[in-house]
User: Fold this.
Amino acid sequence: MATHLKSVASLAIAASLSFAVPAFAATTVHVKLADQNTDAALAGDMGMNMSADMSQAIMFVTADTQTVPAGEVTFEVSNDAKGFVHEMIVAEAPVGGKPLPYDPKTDLIEEDAAGALGEVSELNPGKSGTVTLDLKPGHYVLFCNLKGHYMAGMWTTLTVQ
Ligand SMILES: [Cu+2]
Assistant:
């Protein structure tokens, strides 16, 4: 028993000396959802890989980092909007420069077809929420799927390496 305790203590000291952040700690990404408090210019075709002028975006997903290590990633999502409900969905980014599957009739991303992995759904203005996902290396997209918001520019990318 004494030997066992000693070895555990030694390991703990070695770990604290070797890594500023223990390997088992989840990475946290802070995500802000925001808009220009208007939906006057929705359906702007400003989706991913659509080569639209993103400077015209009126709704936004912003993350405090663009790259995270593979493993557990916790998204802390806050809706900073004044009046609009927003959400954040995580999906694998389409390969080969393809657009995300979008239904123009509903103005929504087809979440199943897009391979949605998880979400913080429908936050009222000023509210926040979290979701933790186990992500493998690759390229991901974070987007809002309230009607028309994605095409209004409400998405960003995340690389997991
Ligand atoms: Cu939105």
